[in-house]
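Example 3.
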Amino acid sequence: MKQRLIIIASVILLLTVIGYMVYDLFFTENDRNNNPYDYGLSELRKSDSTLIAYSEVQQFSTGLSDIYGITTDPMDRIYVAGANGLEIYSAEGNLVSKFPVQDTAYCITIAPDGMIVLGMEDHIEIMNPEGMIISRWKPESENSVLTGVAADETNVYVADAGEKIVYRYDLDGNLLNRIGEKDSLAGIPRFVIPSPYFDLGLGRDNELWVVNSGRHLFEAFRPDGSLISTWGKTSMGVEGFCGCCNPSNFAILSDGSFVTSEKGIERVKIYLPSGEFKSLVAAPDQFEEGTRGLDLAVDSKDRILLLDPWRNQVRIFVYIGDEDNE
Amino acid sequence: MKRGIALVVLTILFAWQMASSYAIQRFPKPEFESGYITPETLVPNPRAEILEVMDVVVLLLALSVVTWAVLKRRSRNLVFWISVFSLAYFGFYREGCVCSIGAIQNVTLAMFSGSYIIPWTVLVFFMAPLVFTLAFGRTFCAGVCPFGAFQDLISWRPRKIGPQLNAVLGVIPYIYLALAVLYAATKTDFIICRYDPFVGIFRFDATFGMFLFAGILLLSGVFIARPYCRFLCPYGVLLNWISRFSRYHMTITPSVCIQCRLCEDSCPYEVIEKPVTVKNPETRQSIVRKFILIILMIPFFMLLGGWTGSQIHESLAMVNGKVRMANELLHPQKYQGEPESIEMAAFRTSGKPATEIYSEASRIIRQFYIGGWILGGFIGLTIGGLFAGRLTTKYRTDFEPNRGSCFSCNRCVDYCPIKS
């Protein structure tokens, strides 16, 4: 009896398979709602809410029409650069001062001496805290698209997405060397920058971190251009970077962890100094689809300041454990 | 033990395949907003010709070795391990493509389409097993076909389903073959590939539906040995025909059958034919009556099948994309309120007149009308042949494998006490 049942069940299974083939071939129409060529990211935009370790505590709008760069100074003042202007806010988000800027500033940093370094579309400007231009210079190339600046006591580093290179200048604008040129012997593969998102920043030991976004890698260099280390993982999952070129922007926390922002699947994440994924700051559903250029800065309290060009806002995130102290 | 080792090997291969799932597709197209010149798109090179030659060499070697193992060594163990190798190479490494089963469609398309040139490797994959079968029986099924090897591995508790059910289900591969040829000849679809349950597993990229499809088939394969080979495989139909004429088919006993009946139940595929001795010879009148019945019955079934095929030719043609689109253009009210299909949107934006697609569809439907007659006639012939087989009695003195259906797996050989 048991034998018979097994045979009957097996034959039914077999007939199910054949029935499915007949049904699929002759009795189903194309799924008209399903476009097989549709490039859908909706599934990838879903994220695990338990991975979110930060909470958004404040937003404020800026007075600029287009915003591109954000940074902070040692007093936690917030600097926002954009079209024809630069605005300075207090840590609480109150406007402190603003200066007009000729043309558009795409990136900004504050040098240790308090000078404001602006990366314009095709040149660098250094201003004093009152907005007076101290110096300005142009890279040699006509194809330059400046997308990131960083500065220490003696150097200004400029990321050029057009030339796919990082320039190291002294504070007077003299070119000292070029960083990231292909050098097989030194193990430098060159930067792959398919779009104008090419960020850089200085680490705790003043090492220069550059996003090789086409390779989904962070690369650390010494001032002389020698490669120290790299980290990064290509993945559609939350633990890695994906798309043509990500992350688009980053900032470094006081413990050396990295805060990264991505486009395509808009999200902000934290990576440990070793490059391992730690947590989410903001999930894709916290952004309007298509938002890009989410520049980042951190202040002395490790608050994460996010520039949201779509909303024209500065959005402030704090670690959920620190929320009560705010 | 042997099966356990094979399953471990299989698991490793699965794990290896999973690694490829980490190969990441990159999403959106890069945004080039600053006069950036798009680099030339690089496409993967086709498989190197030397590797294609290697595939053919491996196929011929595997066929030779398994034939030697079946006929000379008469070793089930050796056949088993060759089939594990074939599963690894042709299945997991070559990802099930090109395969001899699917090659039926390439050969058909090459015959009916002047613009399609069949690759020589595909032709070899199609022809070599047929040539070997003509000489030595279905040794290809025994140890070279990765689909067969896969099913052999999971056939843990094979049960017999009986000759009646075997015969009825055995008609399905003929229908499948006829449909596959019809759709390939009319450039409609390669349905053997579309419903290939194994390739998705070999590549580890099947959709959920296909995994379910394969899973159900494999589950039935635990109890019904080689269900795909026996009740679906269209290439098996060709091998079955050719194997009947094989010169050196495997035998259960190497010399004289001593009628010990040890092999009687050894075949999980139920293809061992028992001795039929003459007790009451049929009268001449009875033989003539049966002969006349067969002579009348087969053309009747062919005509009936052909007529039925011609009557359903429009339904058969609806699988064709162009016919479906013409139908959609002709009966827009049927699809009212539904979103426009992407095929229709593409056609509309092409600016071509509807008459163009109508005349193309009408040409295809005419092809299906003729194809419907041939398909139906072929199925009628198969069913007629099935009845004819039931009416005739074949006398034999020994236990013998059915030359057409036997996969030459050598299981029965192990049961035979005569070893030389």
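DSSP finds 20 helices and two strands in chain B. Chain B touches chain A through 47 residues (CB under 8 Å).
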